[in-house]
Amino acid sequence: MTKAKQLANMAMGLACVCLVWSASVGMAANPDESARPVLDKLLKAVEANDYKSFVSDGADAFKTGITKEIFEGVSKQMAPRIKKGYTVFYLGELKQQGMSVYLWKLVYKDGENDTLAKLVLTGDKVAGVLFQ
Predict the structure, then answer these.
(1) DSSP 3-state assignment of 132?
(2) Tens digit of pLDDT for each residue in 44-54?
């Protein structure tokens, strides 16, 4: 078998793996019913530049770790895109260090780059959130 055929076979195999993986991501089960409203509240707070609302459901370490200045920087970056509209796609859930970690993909109506939203809950409190 020639090198070109070997590479073509490897590429086909990789494409199949990627296709199976993307299909499984698209069929991820819905998150715990308590997680999505928390994400929605955080996104509304970012859109409105409402720091108090953003940290209101946070654990103590979250409240002290997310300063108003950090929050305002995130809000300034994300709010204009959020206001134009977006769709949220659930990607999955992880258990890490005794906490529930939820992942979503935010697809903006402006057609620009998507955002990965990572929400970490400990019980009913926000332990962390990352918009990447």
Answers:
(1) coil
(2) 999 999 999 99
Describe the chain by its helix, strand, coil percentages, rounded to 5. Answer: 50, 30, 20
pTM above 0.85, yes or no: no
CB 87 within 8 A of CB 111: no
pLDDT per position as a tens digit, 37-92: 999 999 999 999 999 999 999 999 999 999 999 999 999 999 999 999 999 999 99
| Structure tokens given for 5 | 């055929």
110 in Cβ contact with 121 (< 8 Å): no
Length of the chain: 132
